[in-house]
From TrEMBL:
<keyword id="KW-0560">Oxidoreductase</keyword>
<keyword id="KW-1133">Transmembrane helix</keyword>
<feature type="transmembrane region" description="Helical">
    <location>
        <begin position="55"/>
        <end position="76"/>
    </location>
</feature>
<feature type="transmembrane region" description="Helical">
    <location>
        <begin position="229"/>
        <end position="250"/>
    </location>
</feature>
<dbReference type="Pfam" id="PF00361">
    <property type="entry name" value="Proton_antipo_M"/>
</dbReference>
<dbReference type="InterPro" id="IPR010227">
    <property type="entry name" value="NADH_Q_OxRdtase_chainM/4"/>
</dbReference>
<dbReference type="GO" id="GO:0003954">
    <property type="term" value="F:NADH dehydrogenase activity"/>
</dbReference>
<dbReference type="GO" id="GO:0042773">
    <property type="term" value="P:ATP synthesis coupled electron transport"/>
</dbReference>
<protein>
    <submittedName>
        <fullName>NADH dehydrogenase subunit M</fullName>
        <ecNumber>1.6.5.3</ecNumber>
    </submittedName>
</protein>
<keyword id="KW-0472">Membrane</keyword>
<feature type="transmembrane region" description="Helical">
    <location>
        <begin position="106"/>
        <end position="126"/>
    </location>
</feature>
<feature type="transmembrane region" description="Helical">
    <location>
        <begin position="262"/>
        <end position="282"/>
    </location>
</feature>
<dbReference type="InterPro" id="IPR001750">
    <property type="entry name" value="ND/Mrp_TM"/>
</dbReference>
<dbReference type="GO" id="GO:0048039">
    <property type="term" value="F:ubiquinone binding"/>
</dbReference>
<feature type="transmembrane region" description="Helical">
    <location>
        <begin position="188"/>
        <end position="209"/>
    </location>
</feature>
<keyword id="KW-0812">Transmembrane</keyword>
<dbReference type="GO" id="GO:0012505">
    <property type="term" value="C:endomembrane system"/>
</dbReference>
Length: 524
């Protein structure tokens, strides 16, 4: 089989803007793997250096995050829609597999988000004492897999990274989870493994179609996929990536996983893994299958609306704090679907901002929940009450994250959801009736959100006082630092959204413009 071409046409939808001399992206991906390989050689838990695995993981993840920030700040041009810092290396030419990495405006903010939350997740794992070498090795592998998903420009490499991250998550839930950890971990792996099969089939079908066999995403995007074939691949990706997003009714693994996972793992699940699903939908369903996306965009919006309302209603039925927040995530990720379905610059921009915003807010909520679980040893809402007096700082953090989640003006959740609404209202390709119904139903979800979140705050922190919980200790300096690292960005983005929007706006505008240029008008 002939080797794949080394240079792509600059006019392709995902063209290369520049190639980098130093492999910064490879360093970002491989540095945590090196750290994971070191872990087996460190002292065992019983030795006096039992904290060494945690400290090494923290140093490596912090270094990795700083490399991401510095590389993007100095080498990434947000005013270019093209791939940047590109690296292409023939890996297994016999099957067409390349080590092909690149970053653009769509992936750049999510790589930063992934690096930040993974580091903070490791910092939140301070009290993990069981099998610490394995635990932090899995976190490091997870960090590499997440970065590789966002940076891969080869379908096989993307799929390998997508599959690789399943293993650490499964083990992190199955070993360090709660009483029903094996059930939750098994349910997670079954859902995601079956979804991965659909992703693989759809990706291979795209790679093998046409005159040119290629796994390179830019070259696949240059092909044309229409008719039943395009619909088949689109639906395969929608279901496959939708499980991770998650979309109704493929979401049922999420409340179980969050309910049993420890707080740091829940931070990763909500903060990064769900965003991988949204990112992949933009990258594959919109960028590679624009003709089919045009046809099915209204269906995507309908699914998003179902997510918003069903997730909110289901949250009311949850008496477990983490399960209620998990259902809230299902609802909030519905706005990502609605934004993607709007097929215009505002809608896609809103979807991107919602992923960034929700990643920070959900991670903050799960972190604070884990903080008071360590002190109360319960997540049952009826078994808690009056914690505001004993834990005033914890209450302040939980209330702030709840207000951000319900889209309080001045916080990131408000600007992201408003942008999605503007995307729908400005899309004249949909009928006025369709737009009005969409906005009305999405607004119902917005009304329900403060009810189930603030009622949870009231019952947990201001309900009847539980005597056994009156002597718990407040958050320490480490926990305060982690909480502030998640909440401050939501305030910064809320008051100054351009700091996030500028990273991806050129890319999302170009993506929307390409649909207009090719006379792709939405069908309602």
């Amino acid at each position: 089989m002939a080797d794949l071409p080394q240079i792509m046409d600059a006019n392709l939808p995902m063209s290369i803007d520049s190639q980098t001399v130093f492999p910064w992206l490879s360093l970002i991906v491989l540095l945590p793997i090196v750290g994971a390989l070191i872990m087996p050689f460190l002292p065992t838990q019983e030795s006096k250096n039992s904290n060494l695995p945690r400290n090494i993981a923290l140093v490596i993840l912090l270094a990795d995050f700083l490399i991401v920030v510095l590389a993007l700040a100095n080498l990434f041009d947000p005013n270019s829609e093209s791939l940047q810092l590109v690296e292409r290396l023939q890996w297994l030419p016999s099957i067409g597999l390349e080590w092909s990495l690149g970053v653009d405006g769509i992936s750049a903010p999510l790589v930063v988000l992934s690096g930040l939350i993974t580091f903070l997740s490791a910092a939140a794992s301070w009290k993990v004492k069981q099998k610490t070498r394995l635990y932090f090795a899995l976190l490091l592998i997870q960090a590499s897999a997440q970065a590789l998903v966002f940076l891969s420009q080869d379908f096989l490499l993307f799929f390998l990274a997508w599959e690789l991250e399943l293993v650490p998550v499964y083990l992190l839930i199955a070993i360090w989870g709660g009483k029903r950890k094996l059930y939750a971990a098994t349910k997670f792996i079954l859902y995601t493994a079956l979804a991965s099969l659909l992703i693989l089939i759809s990706g291979l079908a795209l790679a093998l179609s046409g005159d040119q066999f290629t796994f390179n995403l830019s070259e696949i995007a240059a092909k044309s996929f229409t008719g039943n074939f395009g619909i088949f691949c689109y639906l395969g990706f929608l279901i496959g990536f939708g499980v991770k997003l998650p979309i109704f009714p493929l979401h049922t693994w999420l409340p179980d996983a969050h309910g049993e996972a420890n707080a740091p793992v829940s931070m990763l699940l909500a903060g990064v893994l769900l965003k991988m699903g949204g990112y992949a939908l933009i990258r594959f369903n919109v960028q590679i299958l624009p003709d089919t996306h045009l046809i099915l965009a209204p269906a995507l919006i309908i699914i998003g609306i179902v997510n918003i309302i069903y997730g909110a209603l289901n949250a009311f039925a949850q008496d477990n704090v983490k399960r209620r927040i998990a259902c809230s995530s299902v609802s909030h990720m519905g706005f990502v679907l609605v934004g993607i379905g709007a097929i215009n610059a505002l809608g896609i921009s809103g979807a991107m901002l919602q992923m960034i915003s929700h990643g920070l807010i959900a991670a903050a909520m799960f972190f604070v929940t884990g903080s008071f679980y360590e002190r109360t040893n319960t997540l049952s809402i009826p078994n808690m009450g009056g914690l505001a007096k004993a834990l005033p700082i914890t209450f302040a953090f939980f209330l702030a994250s709840s207000l951000a989640s319900l889209a309080l003006p001045g916080m990131s959740g408000f600007i992201s959801e408003i942008t999605v609404f503007l995307g729908i209202t400005s899309q004249e390709g949909f009928t006025s009736l369709f737009r009005a119904i969409t906005i009305l139903l999405a607004a119902i979800g917005l009304v329900l959100t403060p009810i189930y979140l603030l009622s949870m705050c009231r019952r947990v922190f201001f309900g009847p006082r539980i005597p056994a919980l009156s002597i718990v200790k407040e958050m320490d300096a480490r926990e305060l630092s982690i909480g502030l690292s998640l909440l401050v960005p939501t305030l910064v983005i809320g008051f100054w959204p351009r700091i996030a929007i500028d990273l991806y706006e050129v890319s999302t505008n170009a993506l929307a413009q390409s649909l207009i240029t090719n006379n792709l008008v939405p069908i309602s």
